[in-house]
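pipeline/complex-builder :: batch 7 item 3
reading input block
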Amino acid sequence: MKIHIKNGRLIDPKSNTDARADVYVAAGKVAAVGKAPDGFSANRVIDATDLVVCPGLIDLSARLREPGLEYKATLESEMLAAVAGGVTSLACPPDTDPPLDEPGLVEMLKHRAKTLNLAHVYPIGALTIALAGEQLTEMAELRDAGCVGFSHADVPLQDNQVLWRALQYAATFGFCVWLRPQDGYLAKDGVAHDGEMATRLGLPGIPAFAETIAIATIVELMRATGARVHLCRLSTREGVGMVRAAKREGLSLSCDVGIHHAHLSEMDLGYFDSHCHLLPPLRSGRDRDALREGLKDGTIDALCSDHTPVDEDSKLLPFGESEAGATGLELLLPLTLKWALEMKVPLAQALARVTQQPARVLGLNAGHLSVGHSADICVFDPEQYRKVTAAELKSQGKNTPFLGIELPGKVRYTLVQGQIVYDAGTA
Amino acid sequence: MRNPQLNDKGELQHLLTIEGLPREILTHILDTATSFVGVTAREVKKVPLLRGKSVFNLFFEASTRTRTTFEIAAKRLSADVINLNIDVSSHTKGETLLDTVDNLSAMHADMFVVRHAQSGAPHLIASHVASHLHVINAGDGRHAHPTQGLLDLYTIRHYKKDFTRLSVAIVGDVLHSRVARSLIHALTIMGTPDIRVIGPMTLIPAGVEKLGVTVFHDLEQGLRDADVVVMLRLQSERMRGALLPSAQEFFKYYGLTPEKLALAKPDAIVMHPGPLNRGVEIDSAVADGSHAVILSQVTFGIAVRMAVMSILAGN
């Protein structure tokens, strides 16, 4: 299959390209940019006039709910959601049922994903067996099975001795450890940011220092072990400051923020909107502004969807009893564009946060459109606004605070390894 | 975002929280309650305003006092009353909150009086039920207890007349108190200039100043020249965690004794939502003394709940 994407605005953050240029795809790879290779004859021509052509998005956290939680979502539904959102690679956290704590489970997931032939799936292995926080997993075996990092997902890892050992062991092999910084004791029973809104609504709070104390511990252990750490879902202004200082110190630290935390605050809980029940909790407007600023100045490396499809019944409960999380794969691009527009960030710089930068976090040679590399491409209309509706979402999870809101950006085509896996005209 | 407890005409459809209600609605409820205080004192204590209507008391959390006052209020309005204590029936069989509500709606309920341990549960029910149904929050988690707030407001108006010159001190476990939150909103809406909350830091919620109150950690400072002192009930389970060391120490520093009360205005009134923990938050000499209006609160509570029910049924 040879594809000619013509007249598009090519944005490739890695090569600092933002120009009108045609892209030629052959044998699953980018065959040429700008000028057609000799003798190139396309089987398919995509007219990208007024559209942006960029590397496929790389999402650092998408829960596919397999194995074990298929009533919430299936690999098929969520992989279709991914490509409909322009996402061509995604990392999935280990909090499945059972958790991704042994090679067989990881191989099965990789195999299932591969047969679907949609986006690339990069599993994050469990840091401890059953995410119980006691016994380390066979990290090297899990790496051989396909894991690109190790994490404890949203399960508290209370025992700092285990964390210390886990970081030492991971550092031995050069593995990256992904941690969502939150002190489990300080967050115990909490469901909302410990602040004005939680006080008004009478919801048990999670203080901001539940995050900063955890970051301080992690940073101290990084100094002691030399481990590489990726901090997941930063939520506080002070946390951004601590990451900035740790990076300046030269520690091997990266971090991301979820799309919801870059746009929403505790005030969006409104009248107990369980769609805003998220982990970590939505914090103050001041925190949100610092996250948006940190994403702009590069302190925060990547923006991710933190895609968490939840079945409707689990949301139709009083706020504190509802399950946390929101669907996100199809909102990653629109909310990246919205952030870029509001923060006056050039499109190329904004797209780097969902392409080139997350690829670096994952240690992948991906997220760019260099000749000879895999043709994972997203073609979208940046000017088209569309309303988020349950019917339009391909994900089995319809749970999002953005239902009914108009957002910029409509994906027209998604290519993975040179194959058109999503075409808005036919989907 | 529209206030979920008002209908298209801005009238009260549900009573879920006092926060955000217009002053006119609060005043209307208090004025209506005044007319019912007379009914309660009559020999035949019934008016036919809710004849033929079914009021379901849905108590997902144990309560005798509040449920009883709602029951009396509904019966005095001639409604049929059905009491359901759900923590001991279907909820333990795995039925969801909204399934329970659907089932009861199918039994032609007109009004639900809901108490639930989770903040926001009555909002969820109100957003789910058919438009002819009314939901009254009888206490949800730490969030709100609006009829308690209204009866407190009624009591304060009865004794003090004018809200705009008052100092009101609310003492004790503000963190877990829906009573405190509802009263704070009620008083700020009515224009009370000086609202104080008093307690140890462990029992004062984050950012409570934003609700329009001043925080005191010293009881004696906080009580100075207060017109109204509201003592909150301290649940015994608060003593088991790291919030408080003991009931004795709490009483020593935050319990209301005649000596401490003497710091307030000479004509100060003392209120308490009940049930009392004598010797924990309040000394018997105060609870039974001349400043206490605790039993008046109970009586007014029935009239206020009659007012709320009749106004909802009329909208």
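note: Chain A has a mean pLDDT of 97.
queue -> next item
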